[in-house]
Amino acid sequence: MKNYADLWLGYRKIEDPGDTSLLKKFCISGVAESDKVVVNAVSELRTGLKAMLGIEPDIVFGSAGAPVSINSGKDMQDAEEYTVSIRDEGLAIDSKSGAGILYGVFDILRNVACGGDVRSIYASEKKVRPSNPLRMLNHWDNMSGDIERGYSGNSFFFENDDIVINERTEDYARLIASVGINGVVINNVNVKNAASYLITDRFFDKVAKLGEIFAGYGIRLFLSLNYASTIEIGGLDSADPLDEKVIAWWKTKMAEIFEKIPTLGGFLVKADSEGRPGPFTYGRTQADGANMLADIVKEHGGIIIWRCFVYNCKQDWRDRKTDRARAGYDNFMPMDGDYHDNVILQIKNGPMDFQIREPISPLLGGLKKTNQMLEVQIAQEYTGHQIDLCYLIPEFKEILGFRTYCSEDRDTVADIISGETFGSRFSGIAAVTNTGNDFNWTGNYLAGANLFGFGRLAFDTELSSEQIAEEFVRMTISRDDAVVKEIVGILLPSREIYERYTSPLGIGWMVTPGVHYGCSVDGYEYDRWGTYHRADHLGIGVDRSDKGTGYAMQYNEPNASVYNDPEKCPDELVLFFHHLPYTHKLHSGKTVIQHIYDTHFEGYEEARELAKKWSTLKGKVDDEIFENVSERFERQLANAREWCDQVNSYFFRKSGIPDEKGRQIW
Ligand code: GCU
Question: Is 81 annotated as catalytic?
Fold first, then answer.
């Protein structure tokens, strides 16, 4: 008996499947039968069909093309394309790569598991090409076994400063490959202690083994790198990217690493941020640091993913022009075009840090000559710790659909990260992941929808939030139409509800410092001027217009003008960009203060509604799932109540303006 759930690969038996004749015969072509990924794909097909339908299919192989070696660029994305069609009264899956075949198999199994009519789904040839070259998960797992911002147990990769490899490792690879993930960073971006030694003899064998397991599912392994490894483990006294000794050390080191871990895709680097070392220490630029490493890994086929989360966490807000939101753009825009072609800049979706609502980072659409990758977070650091329900796919859809006006057409974030806008070879999307060694992987069973959904959306950015939610529920929880409808109805509005009882109008940061769960209105306070919300007795919000910090001007037009003007700025972001009187009228017709009261009262009530809906599912879903989610809802309601009370009484006391609906404010 496994000590973890199968999630959406549970392949529950289908009682009344209808016509299954098409699923008895398969022809796989374009690849060699012996390719490890193809072997895994065939085994998955057999397992899934046997379990769901009792079918043991005939599988034949058509002609194979030249083998494709896994890489991280556009050519891999082309090779990952697959087609499924009906041929000779069976299903044919074609692709140039094992990964494409695997995705074709999962396409079929997903449709069967969701109860779809396979004959009509594949009636005309279905051709699928992933939307993005790189579709990655970033683990913030530490080698001690704990997870930075982890809300579902400990790491399943690391324990007591060692690497763990077991049956779960392989099942994890299957799970994430099944939704289209093709890259994984196993260790925390804050590379400290034993993690610095992942690139040494101490761990080479085990890292190589992990790399092989992942490669068997079309996934490339990446490591987070300590920028100052030359000092940490190399015995040098510098990490200056232009220092010959430093360069020589890295050359030798990288040759050794890629020889010992041949499946390695490259490295993720957090530099000059929150205490991490970086090129700034030596008066060098971020480009100097990234390019030095990139040039060295290039001959080994490696890439460097360099994070743009660079800001001065010790900065003082006394100078009203200083603004953390500006930092990414200020640090990275001046060097657009200087980054070498195997560097990708990884950009958090917003300019701050994964708040429930932020504008899109102006680097996306600002940078025009640099490979770019979007970073989102499915670990619910600021969005409820996988206690509160917060289905994030609607947020990701908004981000991807945002028009940056960086070119005449194809200017959305989705276009940019797909590589289409600027013809980049390396690009894509990464999520800080939400998994741990809990039985159900994600703490709250329903948080699994974010893991599933992130992969599905990264693979096909056209899918709707609703379709993804429905697939997740059908595959993981129940195929009963009424139950599916109810749970999808619970998932879909959950992000907006969370936003309503926490931080409306883009204000953010009213959380308990450090922990980032629970309300603390003045928690993030820096000095006598500044909490992040800048509320006084007259108004609230941060003036980021051209008269304030100037952040709004970092956008392309017309976005800059829209954000710069409180009359044009969308309500949901208006306090991110402007300091406004409590009596300011929003587009909705409400005043700011009334909006704060209403959203908090209503948000709490809406959370109660979600919990009530869930309670009707007792006996209709697996007991273990029911109890797990019910217990989370109980905690969510206590949290939502607390937020509602604290925020409303804080702003009532501050503004002295009563609720026009006369509700009790404590
Ligand atoms: C946030 C988070 C940190 C993390 C950092 C990052 O600040 O709280 O735990 O290290 O983001 O993205 O690097």
Answer: no
